[in-house]
Amino acid sequence: MSSSSLKTRIAIVGGGMGGLALAVALSKLKAADHLEVNIYESASKLIEVGAGISFWPRGWEIMRNMGLEASLLSKLFPAGHKPLPEELRLLFSVRKGNQPQGTPILDKSGGTIPFHRADVQAVLLDHISPSIQCHLSHRLVNSEEKEDGVVLKFTNGATATCDLLIGADGIHSSVRRSLLSELKPTSDGEAARRALPLWTGVYVYRYMIDAEALRREYPDHPALQKMMIYCGKNKMMTAYPIREGKFINAAPMVSHPECAGTYLNDHGVHEATTDDLMSCFDNWEDEVRALAKYAVQPSRWAIQYVDPMDSYISSSGHVILLGDSAHAAPPYFANGAGLAIESAYVLAALIDKAAKATNGKVDVSRISKAYNAIRQPYCNAAAANCRALGSLYQLTIPGFEQYCDGEDIPEEKIAELSKLMSQGWEWTETSVMPELERALAML
Ligand SMILES: Cc1cc2nc3c(=O)[nH]c(=O)nc-3n(C[C@H](O)[C@H](O)[C@H](O)COP(=O)(O)OP(=O)(O)OC[C@H]3O[C@@H](n4cnc5c(N)ncnc54)[C@H](O)[C@@H]3O)c2cc1C
């Protein structure tokens, strides 16, 4: 028997935030010697698309536990200035911005720590053990459970076999397609369709703003200092500073409710122009119009979501979904990557406990069941709450139908919005550790 057959063979498909976080978490395990881990990524290069990514205390706690805090902070302050993470948390404010004179809705402290995505990716890559191989240009076509394990087939003709397949392959997941056809057998065409993500009806414009240019015209623009969320009917604008305040990451969203729940005919990403963007925010307050006016190379993304899944694991437990592949939701909480990182941490801890108990090859089905029991309800609920928060931001919740875009909303209704939004954000103050303990107790 070769030494590797004593090891648990783990294949991570997808080298995005979730897949890389899992690779880091597995690298740090005491039981790492008992594991043979490979990452298979479709891209020929690891590039993070989009600009900003923010971490809430739940996700940050995990980054700290994985020993990444110092490296992440050094990306924020390369010159050596070392503030405490608590000092870096941006305040965030929500305003009704869809009229020339906006109205404050909510101010919240102790919020998020914002990063450039490329910086987070670089830190994750730096902390992956050299024993974990990343196979680029490996696009998974399908996976099938056989006697010797799960067999993976890639478009480049390569194959691989593993004991545990983790589908961290994002919203268009191939692993989800295989898993759904196994859980609910049907024709290949029907399974492929069921696995497709649906369109929320929302477009997000993604771009950065040169903070200096904005500051020259609006020296006190609040997005230079904190996270701003501006609300309007079926529209909103989010903006916050990144990279030592040199840039503002902006993500305005525009909804077409009649298109919600439909399928897209293309990949959903297109170039946009500043004029396009400006026209969406005519008659909004100046603060918002400025965030549109200074857009640099905006692109327009159709935001899709995954229909809630009853299970994130195959019936044998040898296949697991993690991150967007399982529960992609619109980014109203800016926490999709945070959820993927939480799941990665919980899964790695389960693998560690199981590997230590058996001193080698682990019973993957027990790990998967514990993972699913804890992560499926939490992540599905997070995705549902996220959609509900979107309706609050876009003033489409019941009781607000009568207010047209740009109209005043009475004070008591603003207070109601503020309370509901504040409740919606309560999760940010919680920790994943109690859930981790519950998961570990199941083994
Ligand atoms: C506008 C916007 C703003 C956001 N802001 C935030 C934020 O501030 N904070 C936050 O936490 N989250 C945010 N999110 C959500 C976050 O980006 C995602 O939830 C997160 O990237 C999901 O990580 P993942 O690893 O599951 O998937 P992904 O990051 O999508 O990674 C999937 C990887 O799998 C690869 N892949 C795909 N198919 C295959 C295949 N068949 N074979 C092999 N490899 C494959 C892809 O190339 C990719 O590298 C935002 C999202 C949007 C749209």
UniProtKB/TrEMBL annotation:
Organism: Agrocybe pediades
Protein name: FAD-binding domain-containing protein
An annotated Gene Ontology molecular function: FAD binding
Pfam family, one: FAD_binding_3
Keywords: FAD, Flavoprotein, Oxidoreductase
Domain FAD-binding: 7-382
Entry superkingdom: Eukaryota
Signal peptide: none
Stored InterPro entries: FAD-bd (IPR002938), FAD/NAD-bd_sf (IPR036188), FAD_monoxygenase (IPR051104)
GO terms, biological process: secondary metabolite biosynthetic process
